[in-house]
Structure formats: C-alpha cells, structure tokens
Design brief:
Pfam families: OATP (PF03137). The protein is an all-alpha fold. It contains 24 helices and 7 strands. The chain has 3 domains: about 425 residues, MFS general substrate transporter like domains (Growth Hormone, Chain: A, Up-down Bundle); about 80 residues, no CATH class; about 30 residues.
Length: about 675
C-alpha cells in the first residue's frame, strides 16, 4: 500500500516512513496515562472507546483521495498524453524560448506547480494526522487488553493465551495485505471514470489501485467490533478454587449441608491435644466464603481510602524508577525495542523491496507478504507460546530459548544480502549509449547526454523510464531521443543492423535472471521469520514476570511506550532515509533544486538498496541478541531477585488466608498441619 501512496502522491521513502511512524507517535502520546489510570477503570469500555477513535482515524486516512484531483483523465488519448506528454519528448529548437516552455513567460507553469505542491502537502498532512489519530485510539488496546487477560488466567496458562493473542494480532496484517492486493486490482478512480476506456492494465507501471477502499472497509469493521466491547463486564467471573484436603475438624465442616452449617449441637469443638476452645460461626466465615467461591482477598496493610489523582501522579516517577532499576526488565524491553525496530523497518519497505528487486507488481508483492511472510510470523509466535507451555520454561529457560532462536534467525537471514539483481544497464548512467553514435576517435563518455539527444534540451533528471528495443533502459523519452508520443521513433535506441530510431516501451527493462532468486529469497525469509517471531512470547513473559503484580499494567505501558519511542517511530524514518541514499535518479519537480519535494525515486541502485535494506535489519537483530545474552547473565547471577515467577498466585493467597484464619483460632499444632497440606 505504501508504494501505491508513493506513486499516487509523489512521496519519497522518508515521507513514507513518517506516515508509518505517525501511528506510533499517536500511540506514544497518551500510553503512560492510559496504562496507569486505565488499570483502575473499566478496561473493556476504554478499549471500546479507543476502537471508535481508531475507526474515525481510519476513515480520515481515505479522505485525501476524495480531496485530490483525479490521477488520470478519462479518455484514451488524454491518458496517453498524461503518461508521455509533449514536453517529455525530444524538442529540436534552435531559437526562441527553452524547449520546455511554450509560452513567453514560464510563470503559468510555476504557478501550477506551486499550487500542486501546496495541495499535495495538505493531503500528506491529512495522511499523517489521520494515522496519529489511529495511534491514539489504539493506545488502550494492548496494555489494558494484555493485563485483563493475564488477570483472569493462571501463570502457567498465560504464555499459551498470549501466544494465541499475538498470533491473532498478526492475522490482521495478513488480512490487510490480502485486501490490499484485492483493492489494488481496482483502478484508483474507478468511482469517477469509465475504466473500460483505459488503454493499460494493472501490469502497467502507470496503474494505481484503489488504495482507499480498504480503509473505508476497516473503519466500518472497527466501529462495529468496538460496540461489542461495551458489553463486557469490568472483570470476568472466575471459578471458585477446588478445596484441598483438610484436617478432620475442618473437613467435617466443609462437607456439612448448607442448612445446618454448624450442626444441631452448636459450635464445632476442636479435637486434639491442644483443643482448648471451639470454632465459632464468625471464625468459620472465611472457609464458608471459600466454599461458595466468594472469598475476597485482603491484607492487613490494605487501605480503604482511594488515593487522589495528584497522589497517583506523584507516585509515577518512583514506580517508573523501581521498574527500570530491574536490569532483567530493562534488557528484555530494550531487546524487544530493537527487534521491533528491525520488524518495523523491514515490513514498511518489504513490498517496495520485492517490487524493485524481482520486478513484481504491487498486487503480487502484497499477496506474497500476506500469504507467506505474515503467516510465518503467526506460526512463529504461536510455536513460541506452545513451547513455553509444553516445557514449562522458567525465566532461565525462556532466556536461553530467545538466544537460540535469535541465532538461528540471524544465520538464515544473512544470505539474503546476496539474493537479488543489479540495476541493469541504463544508458547514460552506467552504460554507454549505442555505439552507432560513437565518435570516430573513441567511445562517447558515459553521461546523460549523447550526440543523439544533445539537441533535445532534456531536463537534468527524469522519472519516466523507457525500455528500448536494444535492451537498454533510458531515463526518459527525451534522453532516448523519442520524437513521437507512441515511442515508435527514438533516435538513441539501436534497432540492430545499423537501424536508427527503434521503438521503446514505458518502464524499466526487466531482468529475467531476477526471477530465479525470488523463490529461494522468500523461502529463507519465511524460515527466518518463524524463528525470529518465536521469541516474542518468551521475551514478553520475561518482562512481565520481572515486575510486581500491582505494577503489571503500568509496566506494560512502559513496554509499549519504549517500543514505540525506540523502535516503531525512528526505524522507518532511518530506513527510508537510508533507502533514499541509494536512489540514482530523482524526478525533476518544482522545488526539487533545493533538495526538497523530490517525490518518488525513479531508479535505485538495486545492489546497494538490497545491502542497506537487509543489512540494517541484520544489524538490529545482532544488537538484540547481545541484549538477550545480557538477560541470561543477570538471571544466572541472581535469579531470585530479578524474577517474580516464584511469587504466590491468587489461589495460593486464598489458601494462605484460610491458614491464617486457623492460626488465629489459637491452635498452633492445627495451623502447622493445615499449612503443610495446603
């Protein structure tokens, strides 16, 4: 979808990266307050409110298409002229104004370009603002949703449920890519023009699909499912704990009928050597509550007063410091941030990479990502949760697991640097123009101009690539020396046997050898993704099991805050900036002389592009591996201090509460017996 936006609104890779990061920026702004105060509120309703905000932002994302001009005119002739205009052709003008200016003054064109630039800037800002709004709406979903689930399952079962949840979350992108591939088959202006009049198909590089349709559908679905969240209670009912075998007096009571809980003879006496009293009805109330499943846990230090908002705000810095002072939590979260950065940068430009390296269409690239890459990530996350539950991995085991799968993922991804193609021969850029135009004293030096186009007055750079009949790619119809709109007479194209003025077609010349690398690339990538994503559930469990239970929701907020601040937001921007550095030809646009508003790159150095794209991801994954090793070192040094996994869960606290009740009766021997059994 990003490549479609790139061509629709003439955006650079860095601008696309900012759109990708806008969601994370919006998610970053309120996440600490939502995770801290939301844990004390009605979490399902807060998630529902966030879903409605997401629906509004998704709807606004599609708005620029309806505020902008049509991408193409309506008739065949105008479509052809819009693809290759008269100004793009070779113009032999010896006198008069410059070839590109057909009016005495060029102010009309400058005014048009200026208006177009301003319109595109406003549309771009709408895209960024809409994604920020979507990010704000998504804020309650993860920290409150994860804590809500973790509060209603046991510690042993939570990795399995988190694995399912992560897998379902990745099914969303899978459906999104499939919808993208479906809607890009529909012409972008299908609502406004008769598409039967188009003289090109979706395989043509000029084709732009209906990118906006998926956002309208998702907005409606978000609003619908958000309504269901308002039907959930504040907390889900839990099954009462199964009673454990008790000593004889308590067991006898526990099995008594409801109608006569103390029997006809009054209070139950305590038998045994230390029986100095009886158990009254008041004393037995906690046991009765436990049997009815209505026991509420309390502590002697629990306060009935609700702290004010100011008190809670003052407590945030101290609780933040307490959480971040745990080196296991900090290293796990930082490693997760680095992994997130790798995934964000790779996924943002994977479709663009597949299109450039292997000559795929945007539709087919989205299908490959949706049917192969994203399901591999789902499988990896699910396997990680299943293996943790199957082997009952503790913190040390989970740490070792993350190290092993990270090493495997990096090892499998490394060869991908060499799976791809080069830029291919481009006349005037990395290849000579055909030799029929060589000077008598030697070859004409490599450059954009040659004797065949020297009098054409071509712009310094261009964006409408042509593939000549000689197999060379030309920067524009002008540089190819084309004098007709149908590209049937291009003076620089060698037709063979000394024939001058051969034909050309739009687009870069394909490289058949590139297709042979495609299947091995996808196969290795999917295996690497499976191993890479299988450490998500173990690392997530490591982080939430290293903090106290009462700080769990806030710790989740910190995790998502740092992952966006250090991962999701900067990674696409840095990756997009690095990819822009590999561009060989930028289009000539108004304002591009100053380095701004350059639009979409016309031609990349594909070899450098591949090394930057894959190498940046590998570097981040290596850094994450070092942090996982640090976690292992800290756990081996002091395992009990940095992990809370051995702390009692709610059921254990219930049983200890009953034990404490027996102790208060005054029978020391009976208390010790109950403690041993429970």
């Amino acid at each position: 979808m990003l490549t479609t936006l790139e061509r629709r609104f003439s955006l650079s890779s860095m601008q696309l990266g900012l759109i990708s990061s806008s969601f994370e920026i919006g998610n970053l702004l309120p996440i600490l307050f939502v995770s801290y105060f939301g844990a004390r509120g009605h979490r399902p309703r807060l998630i529902g409110c966030g879903g409605i905000i997401m629906a509004l932002g998704t709807l606004l994302t599609a708005l620029p298409e309806f505020l902008s001009h049509q991408y193409q005119p309506q008739t065949k002739q105008s479509l052809r002229l819009s693809a290759i205009s008269q100004q793009d052709l070779c113009q032999h003008n010896e006198t008069g104004p410059p070839w590109w200016d057909t009016t005495p003054v060029s102010s009309a064109r400058e005014c048009h370009d200026g208006n177009l630039k301003g319109t595109q800037t406003r549309l771009y800002l709408i895209l960024v603002g809409a994604q920020i709004l979507v990010g704000i709406g998504a804020t309650p979903v993860q920290p409150l949703g994860f804590s809500f689930i973790d509060d209603h399952v046991t510690k042993k079962e939570s990795p399995f449920y988190f694995g399912i949840l992560f897998t379902i979350m990745l099914l969303g992108p899978t459906v999104g890519f499939m919808l993208g591939s479906l809607f890009t088959r529909i012409y972008v202006d299908a609502l406004f023009i008769d598409t039967s009049q188009l003289d090109f198909t979706m395989d043509d590089p000029r084709w732009i699909g209906a990118w906006w349709a998926g956002f309208l559908l998702c907005a409606a679905m978000l609003f619908l499912f958000s309504m269901f969240m308002f039907g959930f209670p504040r907390s889900l009912p839990t099954a009462p704990p199964s009673p454990s075998p008790l000593p004889t007096p308590m067991q006898n009571y526990y099995s008594m009928p409801e109608a006569e809980p103390h029997g006809p003879a009054g209070p139950l006496p305590i038998s045994g050597p230390a029986s100095a009293g009886t158990i009254s009805e008041t004393d037995l109330e906690p046991v009765q509550m436990m049997r009815n499943g209505s026991l509420t846990l309390t502590t002697e230090t629990e306060s009935t007063e609700t702290p004010s908002v100011c008190d809670q705000l003052r407590a945030i810095p101290g609780e933040t410091l307490a959480i971040l002072s745990n080196p296991v939590f900090t290293c796990v979260v930082l490693s997760g941030c680095v992994e997130v950065a790798a995934v964000a940068s790779f996924s943002s430009f994977l479709s663009k990479f597949l299109e450039s390296q292997f000559g795929l269409t945007a539709t087919f690239a989205n299908q490959i990502i949706g049917l192969a890459v994203v399901p591999s990530a789902c499988l990896g996350i699910f396997l990680g949760g299943v293996l943790m539950r199957w082997f009952s991995l503790n913190s040390l085991g989970a740490s070792r697991f993350t190290i092993i799968v990270s090493i495997l993922s990096i090892s499998i991804m490394t060869p991908l640097i060499y799976f791809g193609c080069g830029t291919g021969p481009v006349a005037g850029l990395n290849s000579h123009y055909p030799t029929v135009y060589n000077l008598s004293n030697g070859e004409w030096p490599i450059g954009e101009q040659a004797p065949c186009n020297m009098e054409c007055g071509c712009e310094s750079s261009a964006s409408k690539l042509l593939c000549g009949a000689d197999g060379l790619t030309y920067l524009s119809p002008c540089y190819a020396g084309c004098i007709h709109l149908n590209l049937s007479m291009c003076l620089c194209v060698d037709g063979g046997a000394g024939e001058l003025g051969a034909s050309a077609v739009s687009g870069k010349c394909p490289n058949p050898e590139c297709q042979s690398f495609f299947l091995p690339f996808i196969g290795l990538l999917c295996v690497s993704v499976i191993f890479g994503f299988s450490n998500q559930t173990p690392s997530f469990m490591l982080s939430i099991r290293s903090v106290k239970a009462e700080l769990k929701s806030y710790a989740l907020g910190l995790i998502f805050l740092l992952s966006r601040l250090l991962g999701f937001i900067p990674a696409p921007l840095i990756s997009g900036w690095a990819i822009d550095l590999t561009c060989l030809v930028w289009p000539e646009r108004c304002g591009s002389a100053s380095g701004n508003n350059r639009g979409a790159c016309a031609l990349y150095d594909y070899t450098t592009f591949r090394k930057v794209f894959v190498g940046f991801t590998l570097g981040l994954k290596l850094l994450a591996l070092c942090l996982y090793v640090s976690v292992q070192v800290f756990l081996l040094a002091r395992p009990g201090r940095y992990s809370m996994e051995d702390k009692p869960d709610e059921l254990t606290l219930v049983r200890r509460r009953v034990s404490k009740f027996v102790y208060n009766v005054g029978d020391q021997e009976l208390c010790e017996t109950v403690e041993t059994v429970l």
